[in-house]
């Protein structure tokens, strides 16, 4: 739906703005909002509930992960790739973009916390 695409674009733009201003708390909040908007746009109720639950229960881990050096900046690029795939209605690229985003975030988190 068009309103879902507009919400995704708005969340992405806010995320980029907050990262560029150096506001980590608001960056994390807008990162979360983007992920929730993606889940909502899928029209998959289970995924939307799962993302909402993760957002509420994993906030500390999410917060810590985004402190990994370069993770916020990498997320801008990764979110942008995912957003573009969604706007292009390219399901395969969207799936790959999200998988790469999660894999890269996990790798950065593991490296940051010294568990590689």
What structural class should be given to the helix and strand makeup?
mainly alpha
Q: Largest sheet, if any?
A: none
Helix content: over 70%
Shape descriptor: globular
Chain-averaged pLDDT: 86
Tell me the fraction of residues in β-strands, as a range: under 5%
First and last CA, distance: 41 Å
Count, helices: 6
Radius of gyration: 14 Å
In N-to-C order, the SSE pattern is HHHHHH
User: Which regions contain 5 or more consecutive residues with pLDDT less than 50?
Assistant: none
Total beta-strand segments? 0
Task: Explain what the structure shows.
By secondary structure, the protein is mostly helical. Helix content is 84%, strand content 0%. The chain has 6 helices and no strands. It has helices at 2-21, 24-41, 45-57, 59-65, 71-87, 91-112.
Structure characteristics:
mainly alpha; 0% strand; 116 residues
Q: What is this structure's SSE topology?
A:
Elements: H1 2-21, H2 24-41, H3 45-57, H4 59-65, H5 71-87, H6 91-112
Question: Summed up, what is this model?
Answer:
This protein is mainly α. It contains six helices and no strands.
């Amino acid at each position: 739906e068009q309103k879902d695409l507009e919400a995704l674009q708005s969340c992405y733009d806010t995320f980029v703005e907050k990262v560029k201003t150096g506001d980590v708390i608001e960056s994390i909040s807008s990162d979360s909002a983007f992920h929730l908007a993606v889940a909502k746009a899928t029209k998959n109720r289970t995924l939307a509930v799962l993302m909402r639950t993760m957002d509420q229960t994993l906030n500390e881990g999410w917060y810590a992960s985004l402190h990994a050096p370069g993770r916020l900046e990498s997320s801008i690029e990764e979110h942008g790739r995912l957003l573009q795939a969604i706007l292009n209605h390219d399901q395969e690229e969207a799936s790959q973009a999200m998988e790469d985003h999660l894999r890269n975030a996990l790798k950065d988190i593991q490296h940051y916390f010294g568990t590689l």
